[in-house]
Amino acid sequence: MPAEECSNEMTVSDTLETAGLKAWIITDGRAGMNTHCIGIAEKLALDYAMKTVDPQGIWRLMAPWGPVSPRESIGRLNGSFSPPWPQFAIASGRRAIPYIRAVRRKSRGMTFTIILQDPRISAKCADVIWVPQHDRMRGPNVVTTLTAPHKFSPQCLRELRSQIPPEILSLSTPRVAVILGGTSASHYFSEDSAARLAASLKSIADLGASLMISVSRRTPDFLTAAVKNATSHTQRLFYEGQGNNPYADFLAHADVLVVTGDSVNMTGEACATGRPVYVFHPDGGTKKFVKFHQALEDYGATRTMPDKFTFLDVWSYEPIDSATIIAQEILKAWKHRQSSRI
């Protein structure tokens, strides 16, 4: 079952007041930003429309501090951001901030505005702001959680686990999901780190585990090749970007997970499973990532991946469901504003 078919985790009573209300999701189109916003919109059972923005020239450089280009006049008839105004607007990413600020202003506050990730400006720019716990931003309208919001709620994972695909069922246990990232603004893979990861995965395979390996758009070819060569002797499924993406089923049916530590999103989604998560740390990194990974280790969800496995340890923890926590705080703030207007 694809992730987008998963049921919403919140109960009908929780979402009764927001179910079916209109929402705009405003991002620059990057997958990570969309994932955050869609996860929250679906938790609130909103009827959402995607609004992808791409400011140019000086307007791009001035985001998030500057205005929207006059050519994209917010509120203009037949424009991308024209009335009727939605009850909610959710934005993520620096380039989207001028747009949601303009929507808030033009709607005269009728649109309840939510920003996911630090907007790099005052917390007063939206009704609710979410930032990960390892960010510095705080305020009375700022919500923080250990991981980022996404679609993989406990209900979603239960539904996925109720039907195991035959190709996964045929794999020997334990089944280890391997989620590969790649080069990012903060991390990179050298030939040495690729070889280190490949050797560690080989040692897992040598223990008799089967592997479910998925690459991302950022995974360098030499890393894919190193992992493929090192695990050729074991049972495995290897998704390289062609055909139906089995990522959701890999998460749901893994007994153990391995994830590269270059992505907050990938790590957070792995920690939604409640299954052991080993994190491989590539080259690079930032203080924020160090704090993020340390917090997950302290919580009991993750451990640093060893260079060689002599056994696969198993531990448990309460699955991290950040989207529900964030949605509940948004509901609380929205209801408070609604009652204050009566």
Describe the 3D structure:
The protein has 342 residues and is an alpha/beta fold. The chain folds into two domains: 3-151 and 322-340, Rossmann fold; 154-304, Glycogen Phosphorylase B (Rossmann fold), CATH 3.40.50. Helices cover 35% and strands 18% of the residues. It contains twelve helices and 14 strands. The strands form three sheets. Strands 2-1-3-4-5-6 form a six-stranded parallel beta sheet, with helices on both faces. The longest helix has 19 residues, at 322-340. The termini are far apart. The model is unreliable at 1-5 and 8-13 (pLDDT under 50).
Helix-strand layout with pairing:
Elements: H1 12-15, E1 22-27, H2 31-43, E2 47-52, H3 57-62, E3 88-92, H4 97-106, E4 112-116, E5 128-132, E6 142-145, H5 154-161, H6 166-169, E7 175-179, E8 187-188, H7 191-206, E9 210-214, H8 221-230, E10 236-239, H9 247-253, E11 256-260, H10 264-271, E12 277-280, E13 283-284, H11 287-299, E14 302-304, H12 322-340
Tell me briefly what this model is.
The chain has 342 residues and is of the alpha/beta class.
- Helices and strands: which structural class? alpha/beta
N- to C-terminal separation? 43 Å
For the CA atoms, what is the radius of gyration?
21 Å
Order of secondary-structure elements: HEHEHEHEEEHHEEHEHEHEHEEHEH
The CATH class name of the largest domain reads Alpha Beta
Task: Give the overall shape, derived from the CA principal axes.
Answer: elongated
Mean pLDDT: 93
**CATH homologous superfamily descriptor of the largest domain:** Response regulator
Model regions low in confidence, pLDDT < 50 over at least 5 residues: 1-5, 8-13
- Give the second-level CATH assignment, the architecture of the largest domain: 3-Layer(aba) Sandwich
Quickly count the domains.
2
Strand content: 15-25%
Query: Percent of residues in helical segments?
Result: 25-40%
Strand order of the largest sheet: 2-1-3-4-5-6
Largest sheet: 6 strands, parallel
